[in-house]
Give the backbone structure.
Amino acid sequence: QKTETGDRHLDCSDGFEISFANVGYSYQKGTKAKRALHDVNVTIRNGEVIAVVGENGAGKTTFIKLLMRLYDPDEGEILLDGVNVRDIAYEEYMALFSTVFQDYRLFAFSLKENVCFGAEASDAEIEALLRRVGLRERLDTLPQGVHTAVLKEFDESGFEPSGGEGQKIALARALFKNAPIVVLDEPTAALDPKAEYELYRRFDELVAEKTAVYISHRLSSAKFCSRIAVFHNGEIIELGAHDALMRQGGAYARLFAMQAQYYT
């Protein structure tokens, strides 16, 4: 779906903003095609953590794919500091993002290689990163530390990570890339409540001063975000911080109350 790629080079040394201006997109083309997104207007500010929430089919994933230029919009434009992202060198634009999607993959390499993929890194650096994302206890049980094989396809002494451990490895991989924008698609879906709590508690530390875009169905996780974009039928119908949206009493407040009733 991606079309042309430009040749303008990036200078994000002083930060940046990414703006969606009247953006629309349809997976099926034609005059009667249903719009997956339409008339989306939002600016992602440098250094903020923004949550993307809404029911299934609301447009959350399409929004993320457009943000990352996996697709280009049918309508409107996406701007980086006022420059249409189609005019920016594609590889440079993609280098802005570290991503953890729900369908991440682990490989039958060592734990270290699953994080750094052959990039220059010391064992201590990888070990510290894995401990930061919550793999301390598991790491202490591995006989060869970060050189222990993930999966047993080529090494019977390897280990089979649980779903939660796999998500933590994928998160460590994204953080190792050290890109200025972190995109997380349901990063706690496979974590137990204790691990989820620890991730939320340390989220600011993990992403440091990076920009983060966070898709979640668990609205309790949106409370720590700078702003929350509520999607419905391909549109952003509410945008603001948790407390402001709760006072507003709209769609977000209703969804939050619906989930909260099972915990109170």
The two ends are 45 Å apart (CA to CA).
